[in-house]
Amino acid sequence: xxxxxxxxxxxxxxxxxxxxxxxxxxxxxxxxxxxxxxxxxxxxxxxxxxxxxxxxxxxxxxxxxxxxxxxxxxxxxxxxxxxxxxxxxxxxxxxxxxxxxxxxxxxxxxxxxxxxxxxxxxxxxxxxxxxxxxxxxxxxxxxxxxxxxxxxxxxxxxxxxxxxxxxxxxxxxxxxxxxxxxxxxxxxxxxxxxxxxxxxxxxxxxxxxxxxxxxxxxxxxxxxxxxxxxxxxxxxxxxxxxxxxxxxxxxxxxxxxxxxxxxxxxxxxxxxxxxxxxxxxxxxxxxxxxxxxxxxxxxxxxxxxxxxxxxxxxxxxxxxxxxxxxxxxxxxxxxxxxxxxxxxxxxxxxxxxxxxxxxxxxxxx
Length: 365
Ligand SMILES: [Ca+2]
Prior knowledge:
The protein is mostly helical and 365 residues long. It has helices at residues 4-12, 21-27, 48-61, 66-71, 79-97, 107-115, 118-142, 146-157, 168-178, 182-197, 221-227, 243-256, 290-295, 306-311, 334-342, 346-363; strands at residues 166-167, 207-208, 266-271, 298-300, 318-320, 329-332. A hairpin with an 8-residue loop joins strand 5 and strand 6 (329-332). The protein binds calcium ion (CA). Calcium ion is lined by residues 230-232, 234, 236, 238, 242, 245. It holds the Pfam family SLT_2. One of its GO terms (molecular function) is peptidoglycan lytic transglycosylase activity.
């Protein structure tokens, strides 16, 4: 067991609200473990409770109080979370290990047709009129256009409808124990404990998706701690039930990672001559000016987007070819890259951008 001195030393390097000497004293009931400690016993179900204790010890090492940790009983193994994670992993592994499939020119179009339906656009417009006051407030305060906040809200939880009913501590402990992405999920578990420790909510309210994403924003605990804000100044950051907090938290996330509300996300383009695939991509060093891209034969696809192109004329732009050398092409701004920070998928980010454009047109924003 670590001494109080050692725990204090561990805490000094961490910027944590709960990491005070008084907490250390109460934490003395649970051993503190370093974040890098490795679980050496077998990953068999009869060791699951022991593993949960191991995670709790790591949480002590990051300043979570023993009182909070000891109050969290009934953290249980959830087999369906592992099954869903393996299904996702299986798809990824198949894509990784097989010889690359020929690029599908309809890849992004198929994704958008599935995830950005007309019904969803209609629902976004209906919702807009109900929530516009709180939406406008978040938009102005954080400098993010309303349509993007609405689009992310719609994509993540179908406008608050789907939030998930899994016990978050249980799914996070289960997925950490499973081991495929142990580092990620054990830190999310610790951060979920921090949320409870800091009194943002109680355990019975801490419900989410099979992977531990919570509330109308579907924030993982780390995102909650980093980006959730109190939009209506009632003292709570309630991303589950309070639309002010939901919109402010989405906008604060985008603002924090670099959003610029003077810019559209991007435009669809066409290549009038072959472009080296290596020039495409959203890495920082691949930014070029509009004139530079135009010199390589890249043109706007639809004149209906001429106004958007003008708004992008002095911005850094990246070429995105979501289906490699076949299919559709896009020039995107740094705002697109901030959506990728939220979810690292070009398909997802394109669907959010197009969703926002359709909301803007439909609601006359
Ligand atoms: Ca609030």
